[in-house]
Amino acid sequence: MIYVKAWLVRGPVFLAGETVECVVSFYNSDKPRDVVGEGGDPLGAAPVAEGDRHQNVAWCTAQINCICSCNRARVKLARLKHNEGHIRTNSDTSFIPTKGEKGQSILSTEPTILFCDLNLEPGQTKTFTYRDTLAFDAPPSYSGQAVRYSYKIVIGSQRPNNPIRLLKVPFRVMVLYGLYESLQDSDDDTESLNPFLSTAESDKLSLCQRAERIISTITVRRSSNTYNITNNRGRVARLTVLKSAYRLGEDVVGVFDFADCSEKCLQYSVSLQSEEHISEEYKTRASQHAMTTIVSSTDDFSVNLLSSCFTLPIPLTATPAFMSDMVCLKWHLHFQFVILADSDELAAASSVESWRAPTDVNVETMLWDLPVKIVPVSPAQVNVTASNSRTGTPSIAL
């Protein structure tokens, strides 16, 4: 029996434009028979027939595939032409990377042949390395309500007179806009972040190092942003946020100032939400609205408070903002305020008596959205989290 295993060298997270490196291992689990002497002592390996000495694998090939699966009730998507030919092929003798997938392949690299006619002695292991580069314009990995993009390395291998077996290694792709342009122009604005770095040293920066500098430029805190939140009667609160652009893994921190506000806010809630917008040509209905997903949320009572703060974590598993032909993903902070309809109805207590909250008050609700920008983080940081939660190495038996 031959066992095939595959694992990603650096981890399962990459930026678009990076080179994916995957190690594929073939192991012959058969063991040579031992010859036992008259006293019961082993005399070594027994001679075996030519057909039993080794196991043969005819060939092995690998390629990267991006599968797009859609909710047909929300997305109108025609079948891709190059997938129609798969209907007439024999799934046992033809290499079909999309076999078993529910979606359609929208991106695939050229198949790479790792070897032909591999012979493995009993107990022998041989490894091969597959490398391929992701396109800069590839869509990111995304699992939304209407659209899903998923990436896999598909490894196909076949033994003589046996059907083809597929081994699929999933991985995640993040897209950083501006990375390709920075590689084309070494004199971009990110060079000013380190004035002690020479031009020659700057040209030697790896793709991940250059990406980290672009991310730092976008998410650096320059100045706090303050917003006056008002309704038709006056100011409800003053909101201060430290910045408007964040990377994955950061916290969105904000402070409410309720002092000197004409309207009294009894309670507020804040949630970080993503907006999934389907392109007009792919909508099933013209009146179709964007779909929102809550990633994190918090709420607090603000009766008689002068100020209040909130913190919303951005999980590393979230998908940064992106745009493809089919879908556009945006992020915003969604605020909901419960405001006292009559400000005189909730009078403050005097210094000689205890204050008691009324049993019934007339309130109204106010909604407000604040757009925020979320960009990727260094893949190395996400790979650390992914490696801790990894359950095992994908494998098959030939």
Structural summary, described in words:
The protein has 398 residues and is mainly beta. Helix content is 11%, strand content 44%. The protein is built from six helices and 23 strands. Strands 2, 6, 7, 8, 10, 11 and 12 form a seven-stranded mixed beta sheet that branches. Strand 13 and strand 14 form a beta hairpin. The longest helix has 13 residues. It is elongated. About 4% of the residues have low confidence.
List the helices and strands and how they pair.
Blueprint: E1 2-8, E2 13-15, E3 19-28, E4 34-36, E5 42-45, H1 50-53, E6 55-70, H2 81-84, E7 104-108, E8 112-120, E9 125-133, E10 142-143, E11 147-158, E12 165-174, H3 179-184, H4 199-203, H5 207-219, E13 225-230, E14 235-241, E15 245-247, E16 251-257, E17 265-278, E18 291-301, E19 307-313, E20 322-323, E21 327-340, E22 363-375, H6 379-388, E23 395-397
Parallel strand pairs: 2-12, 15-22
Antiparallel strand pairs: 1-3, 1-23, 3-9, 4-5, 6-7, 6-8, 6-11, 10-11, 11-12, 13-14, 14-16, 16-19, 17-18, 17-21, 20-21, 21-22
